[in-house]
Amino acid sequence: MYGFRKDSRLKPVVTFILYSGRESWDGPKNLHEMIDFTDIPAELKDMASNYSVNLIEIRKLKDTSVFKTDVRQVFDFIRCSEDRDKLRELVDSDAYYKNMEEDAFNVVAHYTNAEELIEAKDYYERKDGKIDMCRAIKEMIEEGREEGREEGRAELMTETALRMLAIGKYTIDEIADISGMSIDEVNKLSKKAISK
User: pTM above 0.90?
Assistant: First the structure.
């Protein structure tokens, strides 16, 4: 009557929750943890089916070799995304990242909130439509290092100018020349120092 005969069989469906958060999963791990059993007799609670959550905490995976598709590289990228050195080592050690599928690239860029990767996707896209993530990561890391060097230089210039101002025997022009700052920058710094 329903088209389901005695010898018919269903295909199994397995649902996974992929969790990529930095903190450990603290949500429910089975259906019963999601249900309010207040005022329900215990014998009825026992009759309610309980389904476990198949949880994959991506950042805590120790071995991703069980994944046979580019899911492995996506998970590895997410796991290493907090550590630039590990990330660079990862993309250098796996040739897949030089020929990354666009959908896999989109997943890792969005999961890791890597705006710079999302914005530069067209730049790293090859003629065959694949993305050279290896090059993108190397350039992103180098840009970060250069920004750090520039910040360090700016801090050193400011510190030098402040010390020279505190000594009080240098002219604004001399301070600008020695510190590498512009005369306007030294004047602003001088005014701030005086106002304190």
Answer: no
